[in-house]
Amino acid sequence: MRFPLVVFSLGLGYFSFCISAPSSTIRTNHVIHEKRAVEPQALDWTISHRPEGHKRLPLRIGLTQQNVQNLEDMLMAISHPDSPEYGKHWTPQQVVDTFAPAEETVRKVVGWLKESGFSTEKIKMSANKGWLQIDASVAEVEELLNTEYHVYKHLETGEEQIGCHEYSVPAEIREHIDLIKPTVHFNYGPSPQSGTKFKRAGDLGQPSSSKFTGPKKSPNAKPVSPTLANCDEMITLDCLRALYSVPDFTPKSKNNSYGIVEFTPQAFLADDLDLFFGNFSPNLVGVRPDIVLIDGAVVQTTNQSFSLNGESSLDLEYAMGLTNPQTITLLQTGDLVEGAGFDNWLDAVDGSFCTFEGGDDPTQDGIYPDPLPGGFKGPESCGIIAPPFVVSTSYGQDEVTISAFSAIRQCTEYGKLGLMGTSILYSSGDRGVAGRDGCLNSTGQPVANGTMFSPQFPVTCPFVTAVGATQVNPNSTVFEPEGACEQVIFSGGGFSNIFSIPDYQKSAVSSFLKNHPPPYTSAQFNNSGISRGYPDLAANGANYVVAVDGGFELVFGTSCSSPVTGSFITMINDARLAAGKGPVGFINPAIYSDKFKDAFNDITMGGNQGCNTPGFTATEGWDPVTGVGTPNVSKLIPLFLSLP
Description:
Blueprint: E1 5-7, E2 17-20, E3 30-35, E4 45-49, E5 59-63, H1 71-79, H2 92-99, H3 103-115, E6 123-125, E7 131-134, H4 138-145, E8 147-154, E9 160-164, E10 166-170, E11 177-181, E12 204-205, E13 208-216, H5 237-243, E14 258-263, H6 270-280, E15 290-294, H7 306-323, E16 328-333, H8 342-349, E17 390-393, E18 397-398, H9 404-419, E19 423-427, E20 456-457, E21 465-471, E22 483-484, E23 494-500, H10 506-515, E24 531-534, E25 537-540, E26 544-548, E27 551-556, H11 558-578, H12 588-591, E28 600-601, E29 630-631, H13 633-641
Parallel strand pairs: 2-9, 14-16, 14-17, 15-16, 17-19, 19-21, 21-25
Antiparallel strand pairs: 1-12, 2-8, 3-10, 4-8, 5-7, 5-11, 6-7, 8-9, 13-27, 18-20, 21-22, 23-24, 26-27, 28-29
């Protein structure tokens, strides 16, 4: 599968894009702050016209936060198994106080805006001082940022976006600004639901499927036998329990929590859950997840298809089945008109990340209240639920489709959640070393015949746990070693072009590059040795039996492996909570440590081909195909229980 989830087309109908302003308007003290990552013309967009200068263009300025440079060290202190501070997670207020922008930053940026002609009434600040919003026109923004906006139109769908190629700020305040929106950020792919009312969340990593002649929801349907004899052809709950030495699980803690993120219009059907549970977990028939509706979300059932129901069905059926009877929280995100992006669910679990008045990136996220006809008119969901101890998201995008500043800003928020004790999991992608929009050319643009590997995001963020995919090899059993997934999909993996290598991973990556050097040059991937590698670990991602739209289908992808891995971490958390300890939180420093080495099954077969190459190869130790390997839950539970 791609990332067997939905790679949502993150774009509003009106997107921002820009080009440098004429040189005569450039102020001498301004320096370029951000440039567009990918040219839209390379992906079927064309310049339509210049926006009218008087049109309102609300500008949002992300202020530089304090202590971000220390975030990794702070996380290591509470997450490394050898640290005396292990497990001492932070309170939300500690996080806000530690990272709030300095007063000097606020003063200088506000001063610049006032000097540029904006009155105090036009400048608003978010509660945590992290964002400024300016009520401005297109012409005023162009003058302020020394840039020029254009409206772009998609050749096939007619969808329009507005933005600029680059923008500048005064040299003396550049260090005080992370990013400014809307500017260079662009939604390069049209929504898969083009022509329908669904504007966004369509193809963020949809799981791949293969129909098979299993039971249908009919009076003559026959149950699927949960046997271990054919796990190479059909993965079930029992196959996973056998593969990963999962002990009998009965929740002992009442305070545990596990969240699954889904993006509207993707939704589960209640009858599909019952069809699956009737075959594999009878006592769950009639049980539903706790549903948290974020930004006007709905669990829509009017439109039904694999692309709309496959991801949610997969995630919930396996998460609920494995952790039964642990309650699963569904973080359903985005309304039917506009949809949502990653920042929207982050807003909902961490109020300090919210801008205000829906201040998310309009090129990546849903903006609420939704101005579009029929959209959600309520305020954005800001801190409406405490962060679950584990959150799994099977959606993603190409790293090249988000600016470095935006990626880093979002990544920082994942790190903050880790400080508060939450494990964040993302699927690593389903196209091997290739991106969902194509491999890259020499200038970093996604093209059909590209030769440069295209890493994914958010999995390249060093503060999330990236989950790759394995398979029970054909004609093998669950008691034999797995290989990297090479059926229908290829486990996403590689090296980031944005994020540097975290300390917890340096030894593993160095060993891979030294002892198993890939046969590629820097023209194909970031082989510097100082870049974040992914995935971190893996789990099975092939031939999952999933009930979708009244029947059973076989589903493939890292969309499968992420919620399954999240289920295992939830089991570990249950054991710790029952013992009077806290959740494990950010697990990467632990799983890369020598202490945990024997708790993973090393995967040494298969690869993740893409870009007309064999890709990387699964080999001894960590590799950019299956990470440190697949989990042995019976070994992981006592290891994590032994920690403070």
